[in-house]
Specification:
By secondary structure, the protein is an alpha+beta fold. Helices cover 14% and strands 27% of the residues.
Length: 311
Amino acid sequence: MDVRKKALFLPCVVMSAGLACNGITGVGDLQLVECAGPSCVDPASTNTFDSGPPIERPRDAGNTTPDVDNPQPDAGLPETGPTTPTYCAGVTFYLPYDNNTTATIPAATAPAAIQNGNPSFEAGKFGQAARFTDQLHYYANATNNILNPAVGSFAVWFKPLFNLTNEPRRYFLRPRNNNNNANGGPALTIQNERVMMQVVDDGSPTATLDPTQTQAAWSTTAYMLMIGTWNRTAPAGTPSLSITLYTPTQKLEASYTLGPWNPEANNAAYFRIGNNAAAVFDEVTVWNRVLSKTDMDQLAAATKAYPDACP
């Protein structure tokens, strides 16, 4: 073909393309149509001979599509420290039995009186524990600084040295009056197959665990947790006494709900530990409030002694 003819033919092709574009888009004379969206590239900025990256159009301020090419740093969740157990609040007495009989709450509180000597010490639930046979240790409570006879809770980790059969009366934790002849509040007591929170000896009000269940779950080789609570003005239908026992296999509970009661004595001059107890005691603790079920469950599941769990 003649060169002049070729030159005349080329504009014809371009014009044909222009007419095709015009027919499809409705835009005349090869005008560019601006597209929308965050991924649009400005054709004016594209150099077909430049191998560099295309220049992106600025994004619409209202576009919330993530920028995958420029990810923002993840702020992450706020850091939180360890949660303090709920049972930490309200402790008025704490005796860890770490090779001595001195309570650390109130600070450096030694027994005000001792009968039948001191216990021996051995491995406890946490640290050391005290083996009580027939010892009785009295801690002064003249101003209710240790135990409030009206409302409170106490707990002890213990390993009994006896099977739960026809047992004589054994006292674990017990408020006593000035003359040491009457209870100044409820006591954790065991007699025969009965494990009890008992206000008056041989009488009610008493919260008693089911003997059959208790015998089946009783252990003389592992530590168990016993918790007693009292609120002597609680109305009928709500617990004014409760006892909870955590054994290696189950949790046992009982309560007294027949209304308010009065202690056997008019004061609780002493908080006494032991009396024919025949058990290894650890972590004896008293509160000035009634522990909730959450408090008790957390205490039973604790993996640290009170000072470490409740800084």
